[in-house]
Amino acid sequence: QVQLVESGGGLVQPGDSLRLSCAASRSLNSFNAMGWYRQAPGKQRELVARIISGSSINYADSVKGRFTISRDNAKNTVYLQMNSLKPEDTAVYYCRVDRVVTSRTYVYWGQGTQVTVSS
Question: Among residues of the chain, what percentage have pLDDT more than 90?
């Protein structure tokens, strides 16, 4: 089992920044992918940013140039730095990790952290 604990959400104004953290209960090197997803009210959960196989990084087009995903292996923590926040970034943000064991993929989610961007 893997536990993921997110933190860092909150209420901010347009143009502000926030950094989300996702602390994992085991080494990040045990995961094949790790990333952030978000779900706004009435919408499907969508990919925000992810790191695959330790090096390849994908971003949603809507956040490119504003958000940065990073990792700290020593702290078993994945971060999402969010700059120039917009009202449309308002959502619950979830951390997700994928772990492949004997050709089977196990997906783990955090509990989510609310990000609200409003003036």
Answer: 96
